[in-house]
Amino acid sequence: VRYRALTEAVVSTQSTGGAGKLNYLSSKTWMERKMAADSPDGALLSEAEFVLCIDSVGKEGLHLHVSKQPKAGTPADRMLRAFQEAASLLYPNTTLQTVPKKVNLGNPMFAWHHEIFTVKRLSAGTLSNFPSHTTPGRLNSFDQKVDDGVLLKNTHIIAEAIGRYVSEVSDESVAILQDHMVPSKELLARTVQYLASTERSATLLKRESSVISFLDQMLNKFISEVIVTDFKASKRDPEFQFYDQSEVKLFAYNVKPAVFDLFLAVAVFAYLGAVYLCVKAIPHVLTAIYQSKKLKSS
């Protein structure tokens, strides 16, 4: 079962390093390394039946975003049915909708996390409580309030669905997760509280940061193999520029307003115009003086 879980279900969460606000830069870098010719994990990733990405599940409503409507019998269709069975078994009032959206190859910015895997011809989908990638709440860069009860419910559904998919259980009266395997509300609440009170800016996240250490220890309690990988932005053509200085000097200069420049320009033009008129009038003045002297002499 462990081998099948690795080869049939790849779970990628944005909260542990997908870099959703940076066009999923870390996920793209991770996948490029895994699919490199000299990588031993390339074959494992290419054999994955379905890649499930978790976007936002702290509010009511679940939507499975895919590049196209799943066909019957495909891994995407079986994953969708696993979610529907888990939701109807655990929380009958919860509905899950499929939202198909084609990948816009002309736009360098990905709308959803799974699109990175879709362009590499991997079957993938993103689970989110947002119905669209343009929903105002999703575009907000600040932390939003999370309902612990809703988060527990959605986490329970996700875990049950993945278990049903990997175990190929279709009996809607049998739950895969029971007793101690059910997600803990207290653990989720403490985790959310810690992450909400800790700085998680991309420029501050280093290997020795407290957030990375916390996530590493948390995952090691439930997963046998946890690997922390880091990367550096390309020096030639970086997608994003990171500023890692915590203290910088700010230089401020007191300059004249634009009205002063306009007034000065008008004064200069007036002065030059007066000089030009004086120069043009010199021949006429000399002629008038000459004629006046000539009249006096006659």
Explain what the structure shows.
- This protein has 298 residues and is of the alpha/beta class.
- It is 43% helix and 9% strand.
- It contains 10 helices and 5 strands, in the order H-E-H-H-E-E-H-E-H-E-H-H-H-H-H.
- The chain has a 5-stranded mixed β-sheet with strand order 1-2-5-3-4.
Helix and strand layout, with pairings?
Layout (H helix, E strand, L loop, with lengths): L1 H7 E5 L11 H10 L7 H5 L3 E7 L5 E5 L8 H16 L5 E5 L14 H4 L5 E5 L7 H4 L8 H20 L17 H12 L13 H11 L37 H40 L1
Helix pairs in contact: 4-7
Q: Order of strands across the widest beta sheet?
A: 1-2-5-3-4
Oligomeric composition of the shown chains:
single chain
Helix/strand order: HEHHEEHEHEHHHHH
Percent helix, as a range, is 40-55%
Which segments are poorly predicted (pLDDT under 50) over 5 or more consecutive residues? Answer: 1-18
How many H/I helices? 10
What fraction of the residues are assigned to beta strands by DSSP? 5-15%
Shape: elongated
Count of beta strands: 5
- State Rg: 33 Å
Largest β sheet strand count, sense and barrel closure: 5 strands, mixed
- Protein structure class: alpha/beta
What's the quick description here?
The protein has helices spanning 2-8, 25-34, 42-46, 75-90, 115-118, 136-139, 148-167, 185-196, 210-220, 258-297; strands at residues 9-13, 50-56, 62-66, 96-100, 124-128.
List its traits:
five-stranded mixed sheet; disordered N terminus; alpha/beta; 9% strand; single chain; 298 residues
